[in-house]
Design a protein that fits this description.
Helix content: 40-55%
CATH architecture: Orthogonal Bundle
Shape: globular
Organism: Thermobifida halotolerans
Bound molecules: protoporphyrin IX containing FE
Number of helices: 8
Keywords: Heme, Iron, Metal-binding, Transport
CATH class: Mainly Alpha
Number of domains: 1
CATH superfamily: Globins
GO molecular function, one term: oxygen carrier activity
Cofactor: heme
Distance between the termini: 36 Å
Strand content: 5-15%
Family: Belongs to the truncated hemoglobin family. Group II subfamily.
Length: 163
């Protein structure tokens, strides 16, 4: 049964607080460190400070302490990413390392799902290469009607699953 107290627990607390975000971001940056496309994008030789910024941002976003904004001001994340070319490849690599990191947390689905959906959406919103600004192909079904055969029927409906 859900008590009133449970309703007031933030997502940050529900997933295990700071320790969980520390594990998530550490695992994610292990992937970035070994990634030949993403690693050269990071201006600093030491990935530690970037890891700390992402960790503090995610903690704040999910209801934890506001240390990120105290140190960095308003997130303005899309603007802060403008100096970097983020196309579909960069987004999908970022998400692949994040997926591995989320998997490692082994959260219950009711917590994992909103976290993952947020990350997919946020990563896509960072894309700044116009021709790549299509949503990622996650569980997307496209229906097209083929009228190219020139006959009199209604055409053939084809469903293509892009998941
Ligand atoms: C889509 C692929 C992405 C790429 C390739 C990417 C790459 C980068 C790079 C190169 C930096 C500069 C390193 C630094 O100074 O911290 C950065 C900073 C940052 N990124 Fe991303 N990023 C991506 C998506 C995201 C997403 C989805 C989020 C949030 C959910 C995020 C949060 C941050 C934060 C908080 C910073 C530090 C901003 C600051 O305070 O200066 N990034 N990112």
């Amino acid at each position: 049964m859900t008590s009133q107290h449970d309703d007031q627990v933030t997502f940050f607390e529900a997933v295990g607080g700071e320790e969980t975000f520390t594990r998530l971001v550490r695992r994610f940056y292990e992937g970035v460190a070994a990634d030949p496309v993403l690693r050269p994008m990071y201006p600093e030789a030491d990935l530690g400070p970037a890891e700390e910024r992402l960790r503090l941002f995610l903690m704040q976003y999910w209801g934890g302490p506001h240390t990120y904004s105290e140190r960095r001001g308003h997130p303005r994340l899309r603007m802060r990413h403008f100096p970097y070319r983020i196309g579909a490849e960069e987004r999908d690599r970022w998400l692949a390392h994040m997926r591995a990191a989320v998997d490692d947390l082994a959260l219950p689905p009711r917590l994992e799902q909103p976290l993952w959906e947020y990350l997919v959406h946020a990563a896509h919103s960072m894309v700044n290469v116009p021709q790549d600004a299509r949503p990622p192909a996650v569980n997307r079904v496209v229906t097209v009607t083929d009228r190219s055969r020139g006959d009199d029927d209604e055409g053939e409906t084809i469903s293509i699953s892009l998941s």
